[in-house]
Design goal:
This protein has 166 residues and is mostly helical. The protein has helices at 2-32, 43-64, 75-79, 88-91, 96-108, 110-163.
Amino acid sequence: RTHIDLSNLADNKANIMISINGIIISILLASISPKMGANPWLLVPTSVLLIGCLLSLVYAVFAARPRVSSRPTSLKTLREDEANILFFGNFVNMPEDEFVEGMKELMTHTDELYLNMVRDIYSLGTVLARKFRLLRTSYNVFIAGLVVGVALFLGVFAFVAVVSPP
């Protein structure tokens, strides 16, 4: 249950990053890009902020994107311990009668049942680690792009104010 809750948390954080970056990109493209012709000095800070948001958005999408293996599984591969019947990506391609038979066999062998449960928990953990690594990268890129972009905007505005005072 904890793994599922953490996966939901990661997906929610990814959706937040996708929304925030999407909004910022839309605002930049809609409001600043038309002013580039009259104010070419806005090109660098706008580009830095836009690229930072775009990269952050891409990493957030990678974190939220479902990744499920769908290799064919049969009773033979289950019996040879080559697949985990508890993982839906493995059993989804099996006929229902084979799935039921495989589950019955697994439930009669408690050592194998526990081994499959442990493998399932491990697999969930590796998926979570990947999601949170991608999210961390998304947040880091977002922060860096935002800080550098805003600093460049302030630098450009200060330079313009000094060079051409009102």
